[in-house]
Amino acid sequence: MSYAHYHMGSGSRTSRRSLEFGKTHVVRPKGKHQATIVWLHGLGDNGLSSYQLLESLPLPNIKWICPTAPTRPVTILGGFSCTAWFDMGELSEDGPDDWEGLDASAAHIANLLSTEPADVKVGIGGFSMGAAVAQYSATCFAMGRYGNGIPYPVNLRAVVGLSGWLPGSKSLRNKIEVSHEARRRAASLPVLLSHGISDDVVLYKYGEKSAQSLSSAGFRYITFKSYDGLGHYTVPREMDEVSNWLSSRLGLSGSS
């Protein structure tokens, strides 16, 4: 299948190493800095859109880091180049995943978080393809390593995925249940997933399956929210739920 060959070919590996991430935008905390969250945009978008989505949320104790993905050819777009955290073809249960691209993006995000103060809780969130990377990062945290075996360096405290999916969902349980430490880390990490029932880009069933896969792999604190009539976008009601969940799970004081 040409999609698989695209990932396996040495040419794609060579070009991927030279990909550069775009501009990072930062929303500074308006109050006491208690948490830092990297927020990941969807396919073809950029960090400025994330910044604009997050800057008005009533979360004065959170610093938001909003990176921009590299521009790369994307298989599902017929090779058209746009911002993308990894390459992807049609979503399917058996579809091949671009592990190299996922690892590169997950490592970039972990690097952004690695310089935060020790007393600041850190997390990852995202929309659509960004949500896929956030969930992939959650699995890297649980296993203690990226897919390529390099140790995962960040102690995640929360993960949020809106209108996304979980790469590698089929094999996740087998990878986590063989390790006591992986099971312990999975059980410690709160994850919020939400999905519009009317989503015609990333179908609702993929969001539902993500929650089921994470739960069966040992992630005990999974919250899955579904929204009637919601397509492939965010709405204020959904972002209010995100704000409330983060405040609760991260123990934010809400004080300035």
Automatic annotation (TrEMBL):
> In terms of domain of life, where is this protein from?
Eukaryota
Q: Name one Pfam family in it.
A: Abhydrolase_2
Q: Which Gene3D superfamilies match?
A: alpha/beta hydrolase
Annotated Phospholipase/carboxylesterase/thioesterase domain ranges read: 24-247
Transmembrane stretches, start-end: none
InterPro entries the record matches: AB_hydrolase_fold, PLipase/COase/thioEstase
Q: Where is this region: Disordered?
A: 1-22
Name-wise, this protein is Phospholipase/carboxylesterase/thioesterase domain-containing protein
